[in-house]
Amino acid sequence: MKRILIKLDKCIGCRSCELACAVEHTPPQDLAVMNPKERRSLARMRVRSGSIEIINDQEGKPVFGQPRTKIPKGMAYPIHCRHCDEPKCVEACMSGALVKQEDGAIRHYGSGCVRCWMCIMACPYGAILIDPKGKSILKCDLCPSREVPACVEACKTGALVVHLDDDRVIGYETEVIIEGLD
Amino acid sequence: MESCKYLIIGNSAAGIGTCEGIRRVDKEGSIVVISDENMPAYCRCLTSYFIGGKVTEDGLLFRPRDYYEKNKITPILGKKVLKINPAENCIELEGGRRIAYSQLMLGLGASPVMYDIPGKEKPGVYVLRTYEDAKKISLAAKPGKKAAVLGGGLVGLKSADALHHRDMEVWIIVTSPQIMSQTMDRDGADILRKQLEENGLHVMTEMEVVEIVGKDRAEGVKLKDGEVLPAEIVIFAKGVRPNVKLAKEAGIACDYGITVDAHMRTSVPNIYAAGDVAEAKDFISGAKYIHAIWPNAVEQGIVAGKNMTGQDVEYEGGIAMNSVDLFGLMSIAVGQTRVKKDTGFEVISLISPEHRYYRKIVLKDDVIVGSVCIGCIESAGVFSGLIRKRANVAKIKEAMLRDDFDYAKVVAQGVVEDKEHFIKCG
């Protein structure tokens, strides 16, 4: 069985995986030839900060709508769909748009989706995202056309690697220590 | 007499959940699914979307049409079960057909409650549960005409939203002081009410309809203060009651619903129950309760199905939860969101009407028992997960109220341990 291994202590919060995911889901899947004016997909996974420092504006009021892009050292956490064996999101999906397929992946078929957001309510990892226009969910599909998902291929620190059936490991398994990245 | 290994009465969330629970373990054992509706598995929660023109008949189906064939399931659709005979391990259908079972699952569902007020039998008065109900309402809906929806729960709000989408003028009339009194707290309900009103719906709270007036058909509703509101369509959305009749007649123990143990077993051997008819464990209180919602019905069905194959799986318990999107304002309420003062609960909240933002967390001894997210809902599931884990969240209380809260904080602050994890991928 193919498995993605996520090692949290190796994630430095560079967000290369997020970029690769967005590119993979935007035709023609090549950053170099993309037209910035055309519709782009957003990433279906994200790296977020574990910091609980409270951000207020100058008047001491809470700040809304500004996700933290700066991630303190040791606080980066890639939030991926786990493609659970007993998926709460699929149980909650009343339209049948989320399906656990034979390869184990949970995929979203947008045409059936009524945007009831029940999957969001059910996922304990908060791994299902909503596109900013509120028209669809964004959900990891494990890159069905690739042997190695784009996020794993993009990870240069060894935080995301793929373990294959025959114990082969694809990905950067090197010890990466980058100082001064705060 | 015909016979099968697994017999399932009910073709909705609990019934199909049971099929899936069974098939995860037993790929071959014969399954028969019976429903009195002549329709492949469809979702009743989507019927309001059908009225609103957002989904077609095919869009109501939550499994593909070839689902039964692919999973070796024999559907018997459009047939009523008249009797359950536990002594002979069989059921009897209308027309006299009898089917014997080794294991039986009762996904009997619930039916809308109609209050006994004068005029309720007039044409133009509806309930919304089934596809048939939805088709009738959809045919009656006409632009420019008026409708009254009695009840401010999810079915009421979604029906009102659907009729409004069909360009009708709609009143929502609620007995309680707030809409969504079962699932949403007062502050959250006020925000949602405002959203409805700003988009052209009329909401009346602490108001009762005492009569449905009209000559040959519904022409309006008479309120308790004597005022008459014109309405060609009246929808009763005052909640549902579990369909326990068949089970009671068969001697299966019922309270409000069919009482089931942690394995979804009824009081009678080889008979299980799940979904809106089953009174199962409540996760938070541990008492028996019916949370008549889709995800619980599916989960209970899966548990029942696995146990029917001989596995030993316990139901963790249901949690009240609901999600509703009203004119683009998303809201999710999970668990116990309404608590009285001085009852040992801690309530923390952050509200910003200008950002259409509201978040509230209800805790007991630093463990979450309920949450409300309005406006920003992406982390709503994280709260559901923390409720189920009974995790101590003392360290992240303030962060949980912010719109940038996510699972990263749960792990980084040590609320849940996670150093590395695997994701299976093929």
Q: How does this structure look, described?
A:
- The complex is a heterodimer of chains A (182) and B (426).
- Chain A is α+β, with helices and mostly antiparallel strands and 182 residues long.
- Chain A has a domain at 83-126: Alpha-Beta Plaits, CATH 3.30.70.20.
- Chain A has four helices and nine strands; from the N terminus they run E-H-E-E-H-E-E-H-E-E-H-E-E.
- Chain A has helices at residues 16-24, 88-92, 118-122, 150-154; strands at 3-7, 46-49, 76-79, 98-100, 106-108, 129-130, 137-138, 160-163, 169-170.
- In chain A, the strands form four sheets. Chain A has a three-stranded antiparallel β-sheet.
- Chain A is globular.
- By secondary structure, chain B is of the alpha/beta class.
- Chain B has three domains: 2-111 and 241-308, FAD/NAD(P)-binding domain (3-Layer(bba) Sandwich), CATH 3.50.50.60; 114-236, 3-Layer(bba) Sandwich (FAD/NAD(P)-binding domain); 328-412, Enolase-like, domain 1.
- Chain B is 24% helix and 30% strand.
- Chain B has helices at residues 13-25, 47-51, 57-60, 67-70, 131-140, 154-165, 186-198, 245-249, 294-308, 380-389, 397-400, 407-412; strands at 2-9, 31-35, 73-77, 81-85, 90-93, 98-106, 110-112, 125-127, 146-150, 169-173, 202-204, 209-213, 220-223, 228-230, 233-236, 240-242, 258-259, 271-273, 278-281, 288-289, 321-326, 329-335, 346-352, 357-364, 367-374, 420-424.
- In chain B, strand 4 (81-85) and strand 5 (90-93) form a beta hairpin.
- Chain B is globular and about 65 Å long.
- The relative contact order of chain B is 0.13.
- Classes of the chains: A alpha+beta (182), B alpha/beta (426).
- Strand 1 (3-7) of chain A pairs antiparallel with strand 26 of chain B.
Question: Which key phrases capture this entry?
Answer:
heterodimer; A: 182 residues; alpha+beta; Alpha-Beta Plaits; 3-stranded antiparallel β-sheet; two-stranded antiparallel ribbon; 4 helices; 9 strands; B: 426 residues; alpha/beta; FAD/NAD(P)-binding domain; Enolase-like, domain 1; 7-stranded mixed β-sheet; 5-stranded parallel β-sheet; 24% helix
